[in-house]
Structure formats: C-alpha cells, structure tokens
Write a structure and sequence with these properties.
N-(1-d-carboxylethyl)-l-norvaline Dehydrogenase, domain 2; 5-stranded parallel beta sheet; alpha/beta; single chain; 20 helices; binds D-mannonic acid; 2 domains; 3-stranded mixed beta sheet; Rossmann fold
Length: 490
C-alpha cells in the first residue's frame, strides 16, 4: 500500500465527493445501535440507512458495537473519523463509496457502561444485530435459550453487567419500559426475529417473570432477509481502494453490487425510510428468508465443503468447474426450489440464474474456507430443513445429502490432496473428536455425528433413507474424492 497517500478522514471528504452516496448528511444523532460491527453491516444496513437519511432525513446515525473483544475496528474507524470505503466489484468494473452513517464505535467487553448508556438513550429507536448464528445463544435441542451457555449463566447471575447479546438487550430494555426500542435481527437464521424474540423473552423471564411478560407484549422483533456477498478484507482490496480514491483506508469492505433487504414492517417507534432506497417492507418476510437461506446459503455451504475437500479455494473457482455448476444448478432447480412457498411474483428460475451469475463474480475471491466455518449452526437452516421437507414430500434429496456428507468429511480436517486445516466452529473440539472416532469407518462417523441433537433433529437423524443417502455419498467421497463425486451427483 502506498504510504505517500493521505489517510481517509473528514479532511479528505471535499476531494471525495464523487464517492459519496449523496449530498450533505449533516450531523444526524444516533438513532440505531448496531451490535456486531463487521464487514457485512458496513456494506449492507449502514448503506441503506445513510441513503434513507439522504432521501428523507431523520436522526438515524449508527453507533456500531463490536460484541467480541476486538478493538481493531474501533481503532481504525477512530483514525478515519468513522469513515470507511466500500469497494463494489462486478463485471461492469469497480467503484468505491465512502460511507458516513456510522457516528461512533464501541467495544462491548471494554465499554460495557457506554454501550448500555447508548442503548438506553431514548433517541435510539432501533437496536439491530449481525452477531452471526453464535451470538443468539440459541439451543436447537430445546428450541429456546441455551441456559448452559457460559455467557448466559454469567448474565443471569449479573444481569446489570451483561456479556451476551440477550443480556445486553434486556439490561437496556428494562430501563426503557415507556419507550422500548425495536430489535432487528439481520442474521442468516430461519425466522430470525422470532428466534431472537424467543431467547430474549426466556432470558428476561428467568430474571423476572413480569419482565419477561412485558418484553413479550411490548417489544417488537421484526424478521428480515438480508443479502449481499461480502468477503473478508485483503491487502489487494486495500490497494485497489487506495488507487481509486487516492486515500488509504486501513479496513475497506469488498462486496458485490447486488444487495437485497426484505423487512417485516413492524417499527412502532419509527424507522429510517428504507423503502425509499430499495428495501422491501412487507407483512411477511418468511418466504423470502427461506428462499435466500436455502437457495443461496444452502448452495454456498455445499460449495464450501466440497470446495475445501476438492481444492477449490474460492466460490468463483468452484462454480467455474462445469460439474460443480451442473450440480449446484440441479440442486437448486430440482431439490431446493420445489420446497419454497414464495409469492407468484417470485421467479425461482430467475433467482437461481442470478445466484449462479453472482457466484461466478471473479473479483470477490470469496473463500470457501470462510463459508465453511460454523457448520454446526449453519447446517440446520441452510440444508437440513430443506431435506426434512423433501422427505415429507416423498421427493429425492441426494444432492442435499451429499452436501451434509461433505461437511462430515470436511470435519476430518484433510483435503483430498492431503492438506490439513483447522475447523472454525463453536463445537470444533467435539466435532473433531467425533470425526476422529469415525476415521476409516463411515458407519461409525455417521452414528457419532447424527447423534448430535443440537444439529440433527431426532426424526431426521433416525430416518433410514437419509442415512442411506449419507452412506452412499460418504463412500463416494472417500473412494473417489470430491471432484469425481461432484461429477457423479451433477
Ligand atoms: C455465506 C454468507 O459466509 C457464509 O456463510 O453463505 O455470508 C453469504 O455470503 C451471505 O449470506 C450473502 O448474503
């Protein structure tokens, strides 16, 4: 990166007009606290919110909070007067936008009192979240709050000094009985708002039954579907941004030009005019959410596990393989799309073709290993629900089963070319142990992994047809390797 260029900051804005999302933004007060300040939020909700303020005004400045103890983002943003660049890359070329919507950054584990004070500020009317599946402290086994989660146990004993996401939300909400904020989940979970509502209500109930009842009755948790492919930042991205803007941004965000946001319109305390800038405000998000989770995230995870095993480092590399393309195309057309109940206006084939185009974007370099993380939490909403629906319909699901089998093989931490790697998953230790027990014995591997009730619902784990499909796919992967298996299943 060239060091002779100036650092991105307020002083550079006059020279960067061509890269702004619009004219004067002014100094909007903070109206949104966002938990989980990462690349995705910065490339998605923050842009919609800035554009909504530019289109219709309103005090919707964002306070971004990093929930983990990761002060680097705060440091970089502070050095840049909270400005940052988003590099959009697709076939038409590359462009940079400088985003101004984030007004403040806090690091929750280090600034707990400041975070709570900000959430308690009556001008804050929305608390939004991208904390990934892990942040919800949700237990699929009980379909509710994971009371054994260490952060939840801590928070129940010290509700005024929280560590978990439900803990923060309830500590702030209980002092806002007159005017609660709306809680907006923007994570890739099925029925994300409903899941969040459930864990927050259960947590509040465990502190005080009456508080739980108040949360259930008075706080809104609209569901959303969010979509934009946003990989991790690399030095190459930093260099490109510096070349285009003439400014050094230490943490720019790369992304595709496609973006989508479907939001359940339930904001009693108000919201930015997101509908004016391309978001869809609807009564029922669930059909869109399932379509995106199953078609996009489901095939993303499939390419991730098969890709790591077969040596495809990025999604565009994977989808450029003709057999992989055929497999993913058929999986979407024949096995996933028929499970969706979407409005008539939703064209499944067009959605599929658009996804295949998005995957092929060569500029994104979206790593299969990045998508392969947290499989224990990603599998259920992305693949297992679809399989259960196919079983119920008496329809085939061999490609979906292949994806699950590829995850099982992936857990053995060795690619077909013999490269070893680490598993990034909150259950990594347990998964590694079970995968080792099943080394060289697929039936044992299956038994061990299917026994994990937090991942596999018992009805699915004990389904004979599912087991058979998994055995066949595991055998093929083991004997012939991922690339040949992809061709067999295409
Ligand atoms: C990806 C998603 O990393 C992953 O698991 O599947 O982050 C995906 O890129 C986004 O959901 C796209 O909107």
């Amino acid at each position: 990166m060239s060091t002779s260029l100036p650092r991105l900051g307020a002083a550079q804005l006059p020279a960067l007009q061509a890269h702004l999302l619009g004219g004067e933004l002014g100094e909007p007060a903070i109206g949104i606290v966002h938990l989980g300040l990462g690349n995705f939020h910065r490339a998605h909700q923050a842009i919609y919110t800035e554009q909504a303020m530019l289109a219709a005004g309103g005090d919707w400045g964002i306070c971004g909070v990093t929930v983990l103890d990761e002060p680097a983002m705060q440091q970089v943003m502070a050095e840049q007067d909270n400005l940052y660049s988003v590099l959009t890359s697709d076939r038409d070329g590359q462009q940079v936008q400088i985003v101004r919507a984030i007004r403040k950054v806090l690091v929750a584990p280090r600034q707990q009192a400041e975070v709570l004070a900000q959430m308690r500020d009556p001008r804050v009317r929305i608390v939004s979240l991208t904390v990934t599946e892990k942040g919800y402290c949700y237990d699929a086994k009980t379909n509710g709050l994971d009371f054994n989660h260490p952060a939840i146990q801590h928070d129940l004993a010290h509700p005024d000094a929280p560590r978990s996401v439900p803990g923060y939300l309830v500590a702030a909400l209980r002092s806002r009985r007159d005017n609660p904020f709306t809680v907006l989940s923007c994570d890739n979970l099925a029925h994300n708002g409903r899941i969040l509502r459930k864990v927050v209500v259960q947590y509040a109930e465990a502190i005080d039954a009456e508080l739980g009842k108040w949360v259930a009755e008075s706080v809104r948790f609209p569901c959303t579907m969010v979509d934009r492919i946003v990989p991790a930042t690399t030095d190459e991205i930093r260099d490109t941004v510096a070349r285009i803007t003439g400014c050094v941004d230490a943490w720019p965000v790369p992304g595709e030009s496609f973006r989508q946001w479907v939001i359940e319109d339930d904001f009693p305390s108000g919201r930015p005019a997101w509908e004016k800038v391309g978001a869809m405000l609807v009564d029922d998000v669930i059909p869109y959410e399932l379509a995106k989770l199953r078609m996009l995230n489901g095939t993303h995870s499939t390419m991730a596990y098969l890709g790591v095993l077969g040596g495809f480092e990025t999604v565009d590399e994977a989808i450029a393989d003709p057999a992989m393309f055929k497999l993913i195309h058929a999986m979407m057309s024949e096995e996933i799309a028929p499970t969706l109940s979407v409005p008539d206006s939703f064209d499944r084939a067009a959605y599929r073709d658009q996804l295949l185009m998005r995957y092929a974007n060569p500029a994104l370099k979206h790593k299969t290993m990045q998508i392969a993380s947290d499989g224990s939490l990603k599998l259920p909403p992305r693949l297992l629900g679809t399989i259960a629906d196919r079983i119920a319909a008496g329809a085939s699901y061999r490609r979906l089963a292949l994806a699950v089998a590829a995850w099982m093989r992936f857990l053995q931490r060795r690619s077909d070319a013999g490269l070893s790697y680490e598993i990034n998953d909150p259950m990594a230790a347990k998964l590694g142990e079970l995968a080792a027990q099943g080394a060289g014995n697929d039936a044992a591997l299956l038994d061990a992994l299917l026994g994990l009730e937090e991942i596999f619902p018992p009805a699915l784990a004990t389904h004979a047809g599912f087991r058979t499909e998994l055995m066949l796919a595991l055998a093929c992967l083991g004997k012939e390797g991922a690339r040949a298996t992809i061709a067999h299943y295409a």
